[in-house]
Specification:
Strand order of the largest sheet: 10-11-9-8-12-13-15-14
CATH superfamily of the largest domain: Glycogen Phosphorylase B
Radius of gyration: 21 Å
Number of helices: 16
CATH architecture of the largest domain: 3-Layer(aba) Sandwich
Largest sheet: 8 strands, mixed
Shape: globular
Amino acid sequence: MSISFLINSLSGGGAERQLSILLNYFPHKNLYTLEKNSTDIRHTPLSWHTKKTPALIKTFSLKYYSKKLASLCAKDEVIVSFMTRANAVNAISSEETGHIPIICERTNPTMEFSGLRMKIYRSILKKTYKKADLIITNSKGTGQELINSFSVEKDKIATISNHIDIKMVNEMAKEEIKGYEKIFSKPVIINAGRLTEAKGQWHLIRIFSAIRKKNKNLRLVILGEGPLKNFLKKICKAEDLEFFDSTQDSFKEQDVCFLGGVKNPFKFIARSKIFVLTSLWESFPNALLEAMACAVPSISSNCLYGPLEIMSINPELSLYGLKEPLKEDFGILLPPLPGWDDSNSDEYSKTISLYSETILSELEDEKQLSLYSSLSKARASDFDVKKIIPLWGKTLEKYERN
């Protein structure tokens, strides 16, 4: 049997980067994408859609994608898909072709598709999981979520953590930050990720505001683009913080810097004092692992899922979501942060204070920072591509033999 890959598109986030590395290690028959892409990577798009195509159109095009894939793939193909829409297309089309669908779940579906979106997607997700021959999750927590919330059989799930190319990170981290030196003239608290609800950066801005009341010699840098940028700027104004947007402003010693979707985040992360992840949910946060690979001490929300399994050598899944601070083997986990509707309570104020006090305490303890810097780099090496790719090989080899 031959192996092919399927993904929504090749532009953007963590799943796309993970797949692009996998392609270098596994001979494959085809790389299918749901959307057209501007890339040198050889691939077969299933539609004329692009990243600008409205999400609703893409959602209602699942059958179209599936028919197109069914017309192209062979019965003896094993198709490994990444991301929710691609996973659904993989599963649906297999009913017609008889190919073997292996799906990779890279998010927490219960949180990602809450409210109206869950009503739309829940039946799609259940069908997807049922039809899949194997489901590969990138954290044990996500695997448990599929068992508990979607009645997926335990034997149908395999967990392979995300990988990182340590050698590449080290090389890119050395690159000069020309034009940005003044921003890093002060100690920097940094965050990286799409500016979306899931990443919770509005919490980080409020935390930073509380920190500055005690130490003004700090700067907050946020890497990434997304639909919440203007909202985050409004939060800065509400907190009386001056902000710099690299896409339209001149730097004038502002407090918060939005540097956008940079090609090389590692050179900025490596020059920062501490990395803070304020995500409301994850599955396996690449940004946290990348910060640790840069030897930057990290503090993370103990969200569902991923951070606990990165920060602890022997994670107890029951500790996910704990509303108490945890000093784990490789960093500090703090209580999960709330969504939009819970940001005005006394409990929220206490949580913001806990985050700000913990970050300040770490910044003032050079010995502790040095220790976590060394531990972070050591932990990141456990997820190096050279260690994770063989796990993929063992998982897929039984399909290659058939």
